[in-house]
Amino acid sequence: MQKLWYGGNFKVGVLGGGQLGRMLIQEAVNYNVQIHCLDPDAKAPCSEIAHSFKVGALTDFETVYQFGQDKDVITVEIENVNVDALEKLEIEGKKVFPQPSVLRIVQDKGLQKQFYLENEIPTADFRLIDSIHEMERNSDFFPFFQKLRKGGYDGKGVAAIKSEKDIKNAFHEPSVLEKLVDFQKEISVIISRNEAGEVSIFPVVECVFSEELNLVELLFSPANISLEIEKNAKEIATKIIQKLNMVGLLAIELFLTKSGDLLVNEIAPRPHNSGHHTIECNHTSQYEQHLRSILNLPLGSTKAIQKGVMINLLGEPNYIGEARYEGIEEIMKFPGVKVHLYGKSITKPHRKMGHITVVSEDLQVALTLAEQVKQMIQVKA
Amino acid sequence: MQKLWYGGNFKVGVLGGGQLGRMLIQEAVNYNVQIHCLDPDAKAPCSEIAHSFKVGALTDFETVYQFGQDKDVITVEIENVNVDALEKLEIEGKKVFPQPSVLRIVQDKGLQKQFYLENEIPTADFRLIDSIHEMERNSDFFPFFQKLRKGGYDGKGVAAIKSEKDIKNAFHEPSVLEKLVDFQKEISVIISRNEAGEVSIFPVVECVFSEELNLVELLFSPANISLEIEKNAKEIATKIIQKLNMVGLLAIELFLTKSGDLLVNEIAPRPHNSGHHTIECNHTSQYEQHLRSILNLPLGSTKAIQKGVMINLLGEPNYIGEARYEGIEEIMKFPGVKVHLYGKSITKPHRKMGHITVVSEDLQVALTLAEQVKQMIQVKA
After folding, report:
1. Any residues with CB less than 8 A from the CB of A185 and at least 6 apart, and which?
2. Alpha carbon distance B305, A121 (integer Å)
3. What is the mean pLDDT of chain B?
4. Per residue in B169-189, is it b (16+ CB within 10 Å) or e — as a string?
5. Is the pLDDT of residue A378 over 80?
6. What is the CA radius of gyration of chain B?
7. Neighbours of B73 (CB within 10 A)
8. What is the pTM of this model?
9. Which of A57, A220, B173, B222 has the greatest number of CB atoms lying within 10 Å of its CB?
């Protein structure tokens, strides 16, 4: 007899136990699905709330392979995991979503770029290099970003190379050189697909980037873009998830250039920072949708019920230690302000400690309130 | 140094580990507050997801007293608990919300009635009796309901005594005889109060009762009542929570009589079946509001962002065993239909296995869809 997903004994294994897994668990409770996590950090956000929590290296073959043995579905909340182990599990008949083939492409920015090229998906011009010694012969390509093919994360592993004199800051490892894009804004599209091939897309999100922190400062939905650009973005997203033949949730970050073109920047095959607001703003949240996708359930409606702004709650610079959320009780007084803490006891500079969603029927009202809230709350030690 | 509520080590003890506790835990994750449960059933809905789960009798002095020792705040998700133990904990300096004094009144329908009388809170006429022998001398009071002063729950402990010939069905124990109310509808008001004395009220809910099952069949919000009645209901609710001097969430069920009067039926000092829809429909859910109340945080906005209908997902009659949710994947396709399963593996006739919230901007649309959904889903074994 087939195991029923709601039977209480259905086991989803999640590689990673961070905040994305934590919010997935909150939704999984409604489905009566067990969430088991693997993470190297014994104090990761899921550690206290997962059905079981195993401490171990996500990049270790044996650890990942053994973790997957008794799970009914295996998924990820971070890309940097051992794909060989997942592939072996898949060959042995386990359901692994996103599929290992997708993770291989996503883990390597070079393969990502080649995938876009082969499938005629618009992306910034690029070149691949194996070492820093190839840098000089690419001086005709200035200005560009050098991005490590593997292991970059949250702005790490990226160097801006505008001219010869920046080469001293360059990385030595295999990299993508990506032509600097003169963009007007960055947007994000979250799409999902189940095994039956059903596809569903959330309303487009606009990201406001802090150049200083090299992190998303706030994002809002719906994005302030034309219907044509929205349609174009959704077509690109659909093409990507279908060409990848992927099952699960996929976040696609795109640049909207000053000339009105869309270029794919990065993809992440999992719930994403740019989808947190869907918890409050949409019929179905990105976390519930990811669950539906990997359990091969009908996808939920992504219709927005209200407009939303999301602010990452980051550790202030110069503070390391037990987190104190200055101003938190003040901002909780505002209608439409929802606080999500990730359960990280120690704050560090720019560490993602939580997020705040600000909702309203009127996007401008939400944006104004979000700016005010952002000034009022600080994570210190 | 005062322990911070968000510090990760703040312990809320909950007497009861059912679905109300389960939904409280889902919200508590955002606050990074630990929820510890005590329940006699090792397989209760909170058993797998609480920070810790202790099996024990809620009515046993020593069990409750010991459970409370290391908690920072103690609350309930069911009324039938040992109040003496809670009172001792309160005297010893523990925060217990709702307060034991409130629980004493709520546990005894006779004391509840006297409380209403003393405080000029409208309620159906009543008499108190100590045993069945006093029944006959109250024949001038027919027709009435006999309600056990203690231990009644979900329609149990209630007998309709319309004439002498019904006395054979009467209970022997101390009871309230409550004059039959000729009501047009039943409504529910959920109110909350924190230690600072701040009070907040949710929009009024209308309950549609199934006489056959003696259970709420569906409820919707906002209630279809006049502004005057809404104002009146909220004034009654405010008076009750203030006269009780209560901290926490309080649900108040009222009859709206055919002549347009409001009469308090029952109160429950905890999250309530009639507030499930607030998860999707309001800025702040009843669960988050209860947490805010007992943690003495500013209360959240109760503004409705959409209209909602809630259907209890009850075990079909004649089925006992491993639950199967027939039609569940079909109803999940509808926009605005949200499923909450409570993690009970065994279904029994009329057992509350979960609930479904149906939301829309238009209440009539939600009601029509809810009726359709109700026909499509059945809990069998």
Report:
1. A206, A207, A223, A224, A225, A255, A256
2. 39
3. 95
4. ebbeebbbbbbebebebbbbb
5. yes
6. 21
7. 22
8. 0.96
9. A220
> Between B325 and B153, whose confidence is greater?
B325
Let me know: does B248 contact B297? Beta carbons within 8 Å.
no
The interface predicted TM-score (ipTM) is 0.95
CA nearest neighbour of B286 among B232, B313, B255, B248: B248
Select from B25, B300, B325 the Cβ nearest to the Cβ of A6. B325
Angle at B265 between CA B261 and CA B268, to 5 degrees: 135
Backbone angles phi, psi at B181, to 5 degrees: -100, 130
Chain A: residue whose CA lies nearest to B322: A7
What residue type is B311 in one-letter code?
I
- Tens of pLDDT, residue by residue over B100-119, are 999 999 999 999 999 999 99
In this complex, do B301 and A6 lie within 8 Å of one another by their Cβ atoms? no
Q: Is the pLDDT of residue B154 over 90?
A: no
* Strand partners for B38: B15, B54
Element (H, E) at A19: helix A19-31
Chain B residues in contact with A324 by the CB 8 A cut-off are: 4
Distance CA A297, CA A300 (A): 9
What would the pLDDT profile of B167-201 be if each residue is shown by its tens digit? 888 999 999 999 999 999 999 999 999 999 999 99
Find the mean pLDDT for residues A57-71.
98
Among B307, B285, B303, residue whose Cα is nearest residue B222? B307
A122 confidence band (pLDDT: 50, 70, 90): very high
Give the Cα separation of A14 and A51 in Å (integer): 11
Q: What residues of A are in contact with residue B48 (Cβ under 8 Å)?
A: 34, 51
Say if residue B229's pLDDT is above 90.
yes
Q: Calculate the CA A221 to chain-centre distance.
A: 16
Q: How far apart are CA B192 and CA A314, in angstroms?
A: 32
Structure tokens at B17: 């580990």
pLDDT score for B377:
97
Tell me if B359 and A51 make a contact (CB, 8 A cut-off).
no
B186 contacts: CB under 8 Å, gap ≥ 6: B206, B207, B209, B253, B254, B255, B256, B265
Distance from CA of B70 to the nearest CA of A (A): 18
Q: A243-280, pLDDT tens digit by residue?
A: 999 999 999 999 999 999 999 999 999 999 999 999 99
Question: For residue B218, which of B277, B266, B258 has the smallest C-alpha distance?
Answer: B277
Contact criterion met (CB below 8 Å) for A177 and A145: yes
Whole-angstrom Cα distance, residue B46 to residue A29? 10
Q: Which of 22-41 (A) contact B at CB < 8 A? A: 22, 25-26, 29-32, 34
Pairing of strands A73-76, A95-96: parallel
